[in-house]
Amino acid sequence: MSTEVTKSPAAAPPGAGGSGGAAGENLLQLVIGGLRRNMRQYGMLLALGLIVAVFAVWTDGDLLLPRNVSNLVLQNSYVLILAIGMMLVIIAGHIDLSVGSVTAFTGAFAAVLTVEHGISWPVAVVLCLLAGAAAGAAQGFFIAYLGIPSFIVTLAGMLIFRGFTEILLEGQTLGPFPDGLQKMGNGFLPEVGPHTNYHNLTLLLGLALIVFAVFQEVRDRRRQREFSLDVVPLNLFLLKLVAIVAAILVVTMLLASYKGAPIVLLILGALVVGYGYVMRNSVFGRHIYAIGGNLPAAKLSGVKDKKVTFFVFLNMGALAALAGLAIAARLNAASPKAGLNYELEAIASSFIGGASMSGGVGTVLGAIIGGLVLGVLNNGMNLLSVGTDWQQVIKGLALLAAVGFDVWNKRKSGS
Q1: What DSSP element (H or E) covers 214?
Q2: Sequence-ordered alpha helix ranges (H) in 282-341
Q3: CB 352 within 8 A of CB 44
Q4: Nearest residue to 154 (alpha-carbon basis) of 91, 86, 83, 87
């Protein structure tokens, strides 16, 4: 004798009648969960978006005017260049207080070479980069091979190269620079193609950047899955791609509707791509993370920590020289007071962008985000006519909040 069992309507799964609402709730939960698990990676990016939105409202849209966006890039290029090098230094577990003075020194050196001695500007650029690399190498030697703390060595370097700047310029401003060098700090890409309301070459570059960014993200996700690493949920990944494409498209259209992409932006883009690849995929990049994360373990693993530290500071010196050329070209003169507090802005950009005080943590993109946060704060407060005194207070609070967030995130991850 068989017994029939029938399903009552009450046995239906909850929400069956409203699958659209349940799907929306599931997507929201996936997004929130993904953001929580990747808070270090996305936290400052969301903060940057929020800061841009707030200042865009407060300035009645002036922040996002094409001319202002272009000026924002030009005004903060030197900080972003320095932040890339400083991020590598901090990841390796060190600090560099001399970058502002090296920046001023190389700008003064370029002025002496081109203005006083009539040397062609391409040769002067190469000599200045070599001078900056030599300055970084000298400090790296004392730090890596003689074991003197980086704080002391670079503090001494800050005083030494500031003195050399005064000696080269004899206490006076020197300029102007040749036209070719000026374009490095103030120039834009030339107009090509038919006449339109937008800068054609900038639009093409923006499209190429979108394709490259999407390809890079998809490839990174695929490689993570191949190595059985955790990846963000697909819905969150697609949302990330949409956000990246939208951000690049907005910036591209804004720049293309003014004079086009600044030349210094192309230099900065090449640095981001190059250093991002080195830190993600090269042996040297992994060694930098290793010595900053756990130096004894790195030594036992065969990492040549002294050599890595030496080249990290050599690289920092070369990037400081590049930043010095960019800012001197923008101002069209070299000044004995140039580069003041640049080291603090670079350090702040790195920490705001996710670097850790203990080393071993950070990304090149994070350094750029941190620099943009400071740049947007400066630009927005200037548009609102906020005094320099309150600007310093607000930037200090932003740095404190970023480091506090890093400490909180570590404790939460540990627990």
Answers
A1: helix 200-226
A2: 283-293, 295-300, 305-331
A3: yes
A4: 86
Residue-level pLDDT, tens digit, the chain, 415 residues: 444 444 444 444 444 444 555 555 655 555 555 555 555 556 778 888 888 999 999 999 899 999 999 999 998 999 999 999 999 999 999 999 999 999 999 999 999 999 999 899 999 999 999 999 999 999 999 999 999 999 999 999 999 999 999 999 988 898 899 888 988 888 898 888 777 788 889 999 999 999 999 998 898 889 888 888 777 778 888 888 898 899 899 999 999 998 889 999 999 999 999 999 999 889 999 999 999 999 999 999 889 999 999 999 999 999 999 999 999 999 999 999 888 889 999 999 998 888 888 888 889 988 999 999 999 999 999 999 888 888 889 888 887 887 777 677 667 666 5
Instruction: Count other Cβ atoms within 10 Å, centred on residue 353.
Output: 28
Backbone dihedral region for residue 333 (phi beyond 0: left; psi -120 to 50: alpha; all else: beta)? beta
With beta carbons less than 8 A apart as the criterion, state whether 256 and 206 touch. yes
Tokens of 73: 């890039």
Using an 8 Å Cβ cutoff, are 329 and 181 in contact? Answer: yes
Q: Which amino acid is located at 120 in the chain?
A: S
Structure tokens at 105: 């020194």
Whether the Cβ atoms of residue 257 and residue 249 lie closer than 8 Å to each other: no
Sign of CA pseudo-dihedral 202, 61, 377, 351: negative
**CA angle at 216 for the pair 213 and 218, rounded to the nearest 5°:** 110
342-352 helix and 364-383 helix, angle to the nearest 10 degrees = 120
**Separation between Cα atoms, residue 219 and residue 212, nearest integer Å:** 10
Distances (CA, A) of 241 to 33, 237, 333: 17, 6, 42
Q: Of the candidates 39, 92, 35, 40, which has an alpha carbon nearest to the alpha carbon of residue 354? A: 40
Answer yes or no: are the C-beta atoms of 232 and 38 closer than 8 Å. Answer: yes
